[in-house]
C-alpha cells in the first residue's frame, strides 16, 4: 500500500486542477489512515492507466492514471506532439476542437498550449462545436492531425480524446500501428516525471468563424431542399449537446423549414439533466422528442447525439408504444445507402461500405446498382478508408455521406441527407416508412437486432468470448450454425479483430464482439425474409436464443 500511496502523492504534486487535487488529497488521507474503501479506490485509480488506442482516450473524469483529467490529457498531448514531430517533415499543424462536456474546453486549452510549446502550429477552433466540424477542419486546413475533446454519447461524467491524422490518412481516425506508436510516446512522457516541466506556450492560433462557415456551406450542399417542402413538419433534438447552433445554420442554408425544437435539450448542458444516458439508442432517450412530435403532429423526428457525430430518426408507428418508434441504425443506413447508390449507379470504382456488424442489406443494394461493396472492422477509422467509398455506415447510428469533406461519421450531414429523402418522399406522396417498404420490395426485407450485456468487470467479457471460442455453438435456438469465423487471426484481408461471426442455415447471421467504447458485450443479429414481419419475427427469435446461450456460458 505504501507504494500506491507514493504513486498517488506523486500524481497529486503535479496536478494543476484544484478540484481533482482536493478529491485525491481526501482519498490519500483516508487510505493512509487504513480506510479499506479508500485503499480500493486508489487501486482502481492507479492500478492501471487509461489505454490510448485507435479510439484515442475515453473514460470517467477524476484524479488518477485510470481517469480523464488534466494530468493525463497533458501527457497525451505531449506524447502526440512527439509522435507528430517524428512523423512529419517540417512543422506539424494540429487542429483542436472541443464539445460541451465537463472540462472539454480546459483539456483543449491544455492541448493547444502543449502543442505550441513543443513547436507545433496549433489551431484551436473558435468555440465548442460538433465533432464533424473538427474532422472537416483537419482537411480544410490541410493539417497533419486533429484532436477532438469529447466522449460523444457516453455517460455525463465521462470525457475523451479523439485523434485524427491528415496527410496520407486524409483526416481519418488513427489505426494500428499508429495508436501503439502514439501510446509509446505518451508512456515516455508519463515516465519522465512532473508535467509541470513540459514546455507550454500561449502562441497557438484561434481559428476564425470562416472554418465553420465552410463546413455549413459544404454540408448544406449535400442535399439542397427541393421545391415545395416548406410545410414539412419535423422535430429536432440536440440531446443537450453542441449540434443545434451548427445544424440550424445548415438547415437554413439548404432551404429546409425550421424544425420544432425540443427546447429542454437544445443547448449544451454537461449534466444532461433530462436523460439518464445521452445516447439516442438508449431506452427513453428520445421520449421528449416523441412527446414534442405528438404535440405538433410532426412527420418525423431527427436527433443528434451530444457531439453530433451520430444521427437518430423517429417516425410515427401506430403499433409502437406512444405511436412513435426510433428507426434502427441499419434502417437509416440502408435508406442513405440506397440514396447514394442511385446517385453513383454504375460509376467505375464507386463503392458502399459498412462495418461487418451492420446489415448485409447494404451489400444487396451495392449489387443491385452495380457498385463495389466493402465490409470492414467496426469503426469509421476503417470504414473511411474503404476504396472508392461514396457512402459508409455502421449500425450504431454513424453515417458518412460526404467523404470528400469529412472522413468520419457526421450526424449533421447525414441529417441533411435524410431531410432530402423525407422531402422527396413527401413530394411523391409517401413517407419515410413508405420508402422503407419500397426498398424492401426492391432488395428483400432485412431486419436487425442486438443483444447488449453491460458489465462492471471487463473480465466478464473476455471470459464470455473465451467460452464461445472454447465451445463453438452448434445452433441458435432452432437455427443450426452453417459456418463460424473467428476474426482474431484476420479474414478476407481484414485486420485481426476480437469478433466471432456465425452464419446460420436459414441465411441469418449472428456476430459477437466486445464494444470498443463501452463496457459491453454485443451480439448483432440480421435476418432477411420476403416480408418485414417475417424478418422481424426471425430476429426476435434469434435475440431470445442469443440471450439464452450467453446466460448459459457466463
TrEMBL record:
EC code: 5.4.2.8
GO molecular function, one term: phosphomannomutase activity
Residues annotated as domain Alpha-D-phosphohexomutase alpha/beta/alpha: 50-188, 216-313, 329-436
PROSITE patterns: PGM_PMM
PANTHER family in the cross-refs: PHOSPHOGLUCOMUTASE 2B-RELATED (PTHR45745:SF1), PHOSPHOMANNOMUTASE 45A (PTHR45745)
Keyword set, alphabetical order: Isomerase, Magnesium, Metal-binding, Phosphoprotein
Family note: Belongs to the phosphohexose mutase family.
Annotated Alpha-D-phosphohexomutase C-terminal domain residues: 496-542
Protein name from the UniProt record: Phosphomannomutase
Keyword hit for Thylakoid: no
Source organism, top-level taxon: Bacteria
InterPro entries: A-D-PHexomutase_a/b/a-I, A-D-PHexomutase_a/b/a-I/II/III, A-D-PHexomutase_a/b/a-II, A-D-PHexomutase_a/b/a-III, A-D-PHexomutase_C, A-D-PHexomutase_C_sf, A-D-PHexomutase_CS, Alpha-D-phosphohexomutase_SF
BP GO terms, sorted: carbohydrate metabolic process; purine ribonucleoside salvage
Cofactor(s) needed by this chain: Mg(2+)
Lineage: Bacteria, Bacillati, Actinomycetota, Actinomycetes, Micrococcales
Amino acid at each position: 500500500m505504501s507504494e500506491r500511496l507514493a504513486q498517488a502523492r506523486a500524481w497529486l504534486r503535479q496536478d494543476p486542477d484544484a478540484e481533482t487535487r482536493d478529491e485525491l488529497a481526501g482519498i490519500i488521507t483516508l487510505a493512509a489512515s487504513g480506510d479499506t474503501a479508500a485503499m480500493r479506490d486508489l487501486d482502481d485509480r492507479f492500478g492501471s492507466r487509461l489505454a490510448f488506442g485507435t479510439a484515442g482516450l475515453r473514460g470517467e473524469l477524476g484524479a488518477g492514471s485510470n481517469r480523464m483529467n488534466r494530468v493525463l490529457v497533458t501527457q497525451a498531448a505531449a506524447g502526440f506532439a512527439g509522435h507528430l514531430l517524428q512523423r512529419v517533415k517540417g512543422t506539424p499543424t494540429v487542429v483542436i476542437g472541443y464539445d460541451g462536456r465537463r472540462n472539454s474546453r480546459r483539456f483543449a486549452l491544455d492541448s493547444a498550449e502543449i502543442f505550441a510549446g513543443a513547436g507545433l502550429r496549433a489551431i484551436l477552433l473558435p468555440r465548442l462545436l460538433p465533432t464533424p466540424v473538427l474532422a472537416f477542419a483537419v482537411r480544410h486546413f490541410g493539417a497533419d492531425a486533429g484532436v477532438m475533446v469529447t466522449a460523444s454519447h457516453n455517460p455525463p461524467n465521462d470525457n475523451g480524446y479523439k485523434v485524427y491524422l491528415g496527410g496520407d490518412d486524409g483526416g481519418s481516425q488513427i489505426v494500428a500501428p499508429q495508436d501503439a506508436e502514439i501510446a509509446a510516446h505518451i508512456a515516455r512522457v508519463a515516465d519522465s516525471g512532473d508535467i509541470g516541466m513540459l514546455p507550454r506556450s500561449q502562441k497557438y492560433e484561434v481559428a476564425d468563424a470562416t472554418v465553420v462557415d465552410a463546413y455549413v456551406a459544404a454540408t448544406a450542399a449535400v442535399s439542397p431542399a427541393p421545391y415545395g417542402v416548406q410545410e414539412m413538419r419535423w422535430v429536432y433534438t440536440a440531446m443537450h449537446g453542441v449540434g443545434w447552433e451548427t445544424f440550424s445554420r445548415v438547415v437554413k442554408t439548404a432551404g429546409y423549414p425550421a424544425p420544432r425544437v425540443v427546447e429542454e435539450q437544445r443547448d449544451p448542458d454537461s449534466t444532461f439533466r433530462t436523460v439518464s444516458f445521452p445516447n439516442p439508442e438508449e431506452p427513453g432517450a428520445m421520449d421528449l422528442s416523441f412527446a414534442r412530435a405528438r404535440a405538433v403532429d410532426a412527420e418525423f423526428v431527427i436527433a443528434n447525439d451530444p457531439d453530433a457525430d451520430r444521427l437518430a430518426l423517429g417516425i410515427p408507428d401506430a403499433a409502437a408504444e406512444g405511436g412513435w418508434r426510433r428507426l434502427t441504425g441499419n434502417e437509416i443506413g440502408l435508406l442513405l445507402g440506397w440514396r447514394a447508390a442511385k446517385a453513383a449507379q454504375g460509376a467505375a470504382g464507386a463503392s458502399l461500405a459498412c462495418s461487418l456488424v451492420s446489415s448485409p442489406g447494404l451489400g444487396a443494394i451495392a449489387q443491385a446498382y452495380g457498385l463495389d461493396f466493402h465490409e470492414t472492422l467496426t469503426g469509421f477509422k476503417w470504414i473511411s478508408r474503404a476504396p472508392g467509398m461514396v457512402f459508409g455506415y455502421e449500425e450504431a447510428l454513424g453515417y458518412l455521406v460526404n467523404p470528400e469533406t469529412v472522413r468520419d461519421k457526421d450526424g449533421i450531414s447525414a441529417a441533411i441527407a435524410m431531410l432530402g429523402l423525407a422531402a422527396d418522399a413527401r413530394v411523391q406522396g409517401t413517407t419515410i416508412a413508405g420508402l422503407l417498404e419500397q426498398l424492401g420490395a426492391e432488395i428483400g426485407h432485412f431486419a436487425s437486432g442486438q443483444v447488449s450485456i453491460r458489465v462492471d468487470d471487463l473480465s466478464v467479457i473476455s471470459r464470455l468470448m473465451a467460452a464461445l471460442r472454447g465451445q463453438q455453438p452448434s445452433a441458435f435456438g432452432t437455427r443450426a450454425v452453417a459456418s463460424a469465423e473467428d476474426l482474431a487471426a484476420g479474414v478476407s484481408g481484414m485486420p485481426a479483430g476480437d469478433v466471432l461471426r456465425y452464419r446460420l442455415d436459414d441465411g441469418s447471421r449472428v456476430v459477437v464482439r466486445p464494444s470498443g467504447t463501452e463496457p459491453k458485450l454485443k451480439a448483432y443479429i440480421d435476418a432477411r425474409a420476403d416480408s418485414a414481419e417475417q424478418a422481424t419475427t426471425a430476429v426476435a427469435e434469434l435475440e431470445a436464443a442469443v440471450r439464452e446461450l450467453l446466460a448459459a456460458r457466463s
